[in-house]
Every structure is written in structure tokens, then in C-alpha cells.
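[Help] Beginner question about ligand-bound structures

Sorry if this is basic. My supervisor gave me a protein sequence and a SMILES string for flavin-adenine dinucleotide and asked me to "get the holo structure". I don't really know what that means in practice or what format the answer should be in. Inputs are pasted below exactly as I got them.
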Amino acid sequence: MHAIRQMDMHGGIKIALRFRERFWDETASFFSLVDPAPVWWTAAPGAPYLMGFFTGPRAANIAADNDPVATCLDLLSAVFGEQVREQLVGWRMINWSVDPWSLGAYSSVSVGAHGLRPALAAHHGRVHFAGEATALDGHAASVHGAITSGWRAVAEIEAAHE
Ligand SMILES: Cc1cc2nc3c(=O)[nH]c(=O)nc-3n(C[C@H](O)[C@H](O)[C@H](O)COP(=O)(O)OP(=O)(O)OC[C@H]3O[C@@H](n4cnc5c(N)ncnc54)[C@H](O)[C@@H]3O)c2cc1C
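Answer (accepted):
No worries, everyone starts somewhere. Holo just means with the ligand present. The predicted complex, written as C-alpha cells, is below.
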């Protein structure tokens, strides 16, 4: 319980913007911009979508923003010009912190929580734990960490039954 309380679960938010047409370089797969949204992916070739990715404190800031789309358009118009606002035809925001089955995006080691992952990963009697937060191989907060933690838990269960 100490480890659970000490570890953080960082938020993650994606904002997808749909435009009338692509006004960016057809070959670009993502744009690296500045705060408040440094990461922007483009969609499949030809599709007029941009997807902004906000994590950690940036996710908290955009979640508290009264008009997150206006904030995104302010940032993008500084790069692509005012056409960005006229081109917008739709948007969607996905916030993993308010998804009841996720309650966040990534486990994160806050100040004072260093070295606590092994406690999260430790089995409790016959109950074994997997999931990215319990990955002990340096791949926490990722799909590969989730997978390797599953392999570890299975190995523990097999060893317990030998
Ligand atoms: C927006 C976003 C982008 C990401 N991008 C990447 C990336 O590019 N590369 C990468 O490697 N990782 C990425 N990650 C991280 C990666 O998705 C996670 O680390 C990984 O999915 C965690 O897997 P998990 O099995 O530990 O947990 P989860 O995938 O969260 O699985 C937990 C499961 O438990 C279920 N559950 C929860 N509570 C209960 C309950 N009470 N009863 C029954 N079931 C319950 C949930 O519905 C869920 O299916 C991203 C995460 C987010 C949110």
C-alpha cells in the first residue's frame, strides 16, 4: 500500500483535430512544437487530421483549460498561419485520467518513490501482479513493459507450482 500511495499515475490526453484539407507537407508524419503541446502526429497519408498528445503536467493543464481547442489552434496557427482556424471542421478529446478503467496513462516514479516498483510487483500469497507499473526491466510505462511483466508473473506462478 505504501508503494501504491507513493507512485504516481500520470495523465494522458489526445486531441484530434479534423480539417477540411491537409495544409502540411504530405510526407510529414509528426511535428515537434513547443508547449503546451509539443507532440503532433499526422494521420495516414492524405487524411486531414492532426493529433496532439499531452502527458503528465501538460495533460493536467489542458484538462483544466476552458477551451482546449482554442489553445491548440493558437499553437498551430503560429506555425501554419491563420488558415488553421478556418480549416477546422471537427475535433475530439480523449482523456485517460477520467476513463474509469484506466484513471491515467502511465505509472511514474514521483519524488520519494524510487525503488518501489519491486514492492508493486511482489506477489501476495497466491495473487500475482502484472502490468506496466510492475515492470522491473526498465520498460515500465510502455506496452513492452506490460508484456514482460506478464511473462514475469507467469514464471512466478509456474515456479510456485513446481
Ligand atoms: C494515450 C496513450 C499513448 C500511449 N502510447 C504508447 C506507445 O506509443 N508505446 C508504448 O509502448 N506505450 C504507450 N502507452 C502506454 C501503454 O499503453 C501502457 O503502458 C500499457 O497499455 C499498459 O498495459 P497494462 O496491461 O499494464 O494496463 P492496461 O492496458 O491499462 O490494462 C488494464 C486492464 O484492466 C482493466 N481493468 C481495470 N480495472 C478493472 C477492474 N476493476 N476489473 C476488471 N478489469 C479492470 C482495464 O479495463 C484494462 O483493460 C500509451 C498509453 C496511453 C494512455
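A couple of things worth pointing out: The first strand starts at residue 8 and ends at 10. The chain has a mean pLDDT of 94. Feel free to follow up in the thread.
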